[in-house]
Amino acid sequence: MSKTCFSDAEYEAVKRVLDSGWVTMGPETHAFEKEFANYLGSEHAIAVSSGTAALHLSLLALGIGPGDEVILPSLTFVATANAVRYVGAVPVFAEISGLNDWNISVGSIESKIRPATAGVIVVHYAGFPCQMDKIQTLVKGRGLKLIEDAAHAPGAFFNGKALGAWGDAGCFSFYSNKNMTSAEGGMIVTNNEETARQISLLRSHGMTALTWDRHLGHCFSYDVLRTGFNYRIDELRASLGKAQLAKLNKNNRRRRELTRSMRSELNVGLPITFPFSDGMISESGCHIFPILLDDSQKRPAFMEHMKHLGIQTSIHYPPIHKFTSYADFPSEGSQLPVTELVAAGEVTLPLYPSMTDKDLAFVCQAVKQFYSG
Ligand SMILES: *Cc1c(COP(=O)(O)O)cnc(C)c1O
């Protein structure tokens, strides 16, 4: 469970845009992009309508298409894999590292590389960083493209460098339950000028000039360079995004604090596994608080118990390779036993910045009560 948290800053931002009379892509969007690029330490940031659009345009801009394979985890939101299919490429699912590290395994990526492999999409699960040094070395050595699905990880790091800034493109989502929100929205960051140019074109019909440029009198006509989309964000969302970006560090600090407290409070010998290590929390986005019930059979009863106490829980994620739409997997008889084990017993407990210490104590008490009762 997550909760949005808006203050005067968001209300005033939206009002300022409405008062200006210009609501589609323009100065607010450009300012949001600039601030996000600065925040992340990237050369370019391009705002789009969703995280899914960010993934789609990254793949297209990096030249991935029909005949290509893209390696990615199965333990992620389905949009990560759907985007690969949008461009006509084939998603190839890799295994996660283990019961204590739910990010994609470097060894598994390596074992899935074939002549058709064009790229890798890593997902920083719950905001905890993948092993970006090893992954970058592997991917570069094989001449593959690297995309980071950093939907859980704005303001998170690996070895002090921002997540999203390691790959050829880094994709963010500003959906309502993410670390920062613009209602719907997304962002792509890249250090490559040509990639940024392609993404900007594709975001708006492949057109060379935008309405805003024509409004400014910069040009009267336009050309269309390739078949693009309408994946634009708008000024209302961009202004919300700017206001939320200003609060991101503070909110992430609270997420980390809550994560530490919850882990220590629940560390009393319950049959539960906490993924990742306490030492990783300081660099994590702490987007969600996932636990693994050692006995996955107990999950429905556990979730029912929590619901009965008014505590909403969820599952991150049903693994993609088990969905009907992905039933053609496995293509080479590969299995993902660790992914399946985690997916069967995972429960996500509430975590959001406005969660109070009292809320936290109530959730932890409810978990302990399930196992003592
Ligand atoms: C939210 C999310 C997306 C999709 O983002 P939208 O903005 O909802 O399109 C993609 N990948 C992951 C891991 C996500 O959590």
Keywords for this structure?
373 residues; three-stranded antiparallel β-sheet; binds pyridoxal-5'-phosphate
Question: Would you write up a description of this structure?
Answer:
There is one protein chain. The strands form four sheets. The chain has a seven-stranded mixed β-sheet, sandwiched between helices. A three-stranded antiparallel β-sheet has the order 12-13-14. It has helices at 8-20, 27-40, 51-61, 78-86, 106-112, 132-141, 193-203, 211-215, 235-265, 299-308, 337-345, 357-372, and strands spanning 44-48, 69-73, 90-94, 96-98, 101-104, 117-123, 145-149, 157-158, 161-162, 169-173, 186-190, 272-273, 289-293, 346-349. The protein starts with 7 loop residues before the first helix and ends with a helix. Helix 1 (8-20) runs antiparallel to helix 9 and helix 3 crosses helix 7 (193-203). With 373 residues, the chain is of the alpha/beta class. Pyridoxal-5'-phosphate binds at residues 50-52, 76-77, 79-80, 123, 149, 151-152, 173, 175, 186.
Oligomer: single chain
How would you sum up the major sheet? 7 strands, mixed
Contiguous uncertain segments of 5+ residues: none
Measured by DSSP, the beta-strand proportion falls in 15-25%
Bound molecule types:
pyridoxal-5'-phosphate
Order of strands across the biggest sheet? 1-11-10-7-6-2-3
